[in-house]
Amino acid sequence: MADTSTVARTADGSRGVRYGLRALVVVYLVLLVGWPVSLVVRGAFADGLETLRTALSDPSVVFALQLTASVAVQVVVLNTLFGVGISLLLVRYDFPGKSLLNALLDLPLSVSPIVVGLSLVLVYGKDGWFGGTLESAGMQVIFAPPGIVLATAFVCLPLVIREVVPVLTEIGTDEELAATSLGATWFQTFRRITLPAIRWAVVYGVVLTLARALGEFGAVKVVSGNFEGRTQTSTLLVEQRYQDFEQGTAFAVAFLLASVSVACIVAVTFLRSDSPSSPKATS
Amino acid sequence: MTSTVAERPGRAARERRPAPAAPGRRRRTPNGPYRLTAASGLGLGVSLLWFSALALIPLVAVLVETSAGGWPAFVAAVTQPQTAAALTLTVTQALAVTAVNVVMGTVIAWVLVRDRFPGKRLVEVLIDIPFALPTIVAGLVLLALYGPSGPLGVDVANTRTAVFLAFLFVTLPFVVRSVQPVLAELDRDVEEAAASLGASRFTTFRRVVLPALAPAITAGAALSFARAISEYGALVLLSGNLPMRTEVGSVRILSYLENGQPAQAAAVASVLLLVSLLVIATIQLVQRRVARRG
């Protein structure tokens, strides 16, 4: 399966087809992804650093960036704890309804962000199932930061699980059993044996969650109310400024968001092929 | 053969990943699973409580809200002309995009696995960008290139092509990432045997490679369809959301909600939700069939 033998064997195949397909793929990806994405840089630096400086001196922009960062951190913590926990349960334990839970955990990836937002409003909104009770207890969820955290956690839910479960499945339980039989407590086994083994999977999950959390738009738009300076996150600000013909600010903030998310993806792509826990199949 | 099949899911899912390639989850460990202990039972309880509060109860609320008005209200909501137009547009464009993805995704996966050239890693990054890039930023940059002031002189803003383009951008990775690991693990001896028996490259591809890739392509196509019909952020700036012309399902839900018609919003949302469930069921079915064949 190694790349070298593959290429060596392909070399005697028809070169024309190979070069043709290669060119097709490169042109397609440049037109669909590469070129458009490069324009965010052009838009943000059209007047040199001035656009970025103006944007960052706007208190609403600073607030939106801070809100986005704080939401992303909360979501990463919540989803990592939940993700690692539920992965351990799914792989290591047997309980009724496990396969149903397994299937349901994938749901957030294919549900529309707008539906996510709507569903949270129906439950936690002022007239929702729990919203009234929570509000009389002094806790506003919808049109407030907790709603934004919930919506973002919802859409990012499977990302850590998807990374951790395959690794947990593959490492098996031999070393854990050995540790337990030598008298290690559950927590010692987890910290010394399991955690080091799934370390990289957790890192990938966290990075992917971070990228997704920074960029969530649709679900947040529904639950946040989009109040500038109170519940307006960075992505909402990009939309609003673009529609208000403040393209410079829109592009500056879009550039900041895009550079973090692209950095996350590049980091994962390169770590995956270099890290010790990456599969040998590609090397 | 048995060992490759047993190994494939886990490795494939870890290799690269995202959505489609996690069939490893469905496999039981050979040396587990244990019975629940008190501590793990408590953990399960807490996890389920959080999952219910976060996702299950809200999604059930959408269905309850929809069913509150009964069947006639549901039918009235989704056949209202503007809503019907939005749903039709969403489904037709999503199908078109999925068709393109099936072809281009397979081609891209093929090139990534079987070809080697400088800059291949860059191509890998380009494919993952739609996963990570905030959707509103995706819309913004597509508008910058294919909008009224784009350098190419192509202007698709406020047309149905804009919807197609936005869907195409966000669904790019699904088929590629689903097919790629399967193609990488494919046994090349069979292809060589076919070639040595005089099959042309095309015949070998059609009769030997394609059948092996079919489940992965189906899974990727299902995910890309599901993602397309639920997209919102990437097209909100691009398509102009013109009623009866470029408005899609998710935009319709949002405008119902903003107009204080949560029941109608929930009705349209239920349609989208049902399609998501159908897609997940399809993928599970395909994976189960593949597992049984192995």
Instruction: Please tally the β strands of chain A and state the result.
Output: 1
Within the CATH hierarchy, at the fold level, what is the topology of the largest domain in chain A?
Answer: MetI-like fold
| Estimated share of beta-strand residues of chain B | under 5%
How would a crystallographer describe the biggest sheet of chain B? none
- Structural class, judged by helices and strands of chain B? mainly alpha
Given helix and strand content, the structural type of chain A is mainly alpha
How many helix segments of chain B?
12
Helix content of chain A: over 70%
Task: Give a short summary of the structure.
The complex is a heterodimer of chains A (283) and B (294). Chain A is mostly helical and 283 residues long.
Describe the 3D structure.
The complex is a heterodimer of chains A (283) and B (294). The N and C termini of chain A lie close together (9 Å). Chain A has 283 residues and is an all-alpha fold. Chain A folds into 2 domains: 1-44; 58-282, MetI-like (MetI-like fold), CATH 1.10.3720. Chain A is built from 15 helices and 1 strand. The longest helix of chain A has 34 residues, at 59-92. Chain A has helices at 3-11, 15-44, 50-56, 59-92, 98-104, 107-110, 113-124, 131-136, 145-156, 158-171, 174-181, 186-215, 218-224, 234-243, 247-274, and one strand spanning 93-94. The radius of gyration of chain B is 22 Å and the shape is globular. Helices cover 77% and strands 1% of the residues of chain B. The N and C termini of chain B lie close together (8 Å). In chain B, helix 3 packs across helix 12 (262-293), helix 5 (120-132) packs across helix 7 (160-185) and helix 8 packs across helix 9. Chain B has 2 domains: 36-68; 70-293, MetI-like fold, CATH 1.10.3720.10. At the A-B interface, helix 1, helix 2, helix 4, strand 1 and helix 5 of A face helix 1, strand 1, helix 2, helix 4 and helix 5 of B. Strand 1 of chain A pairs parallel with strand 1 (34-35) of chain B.
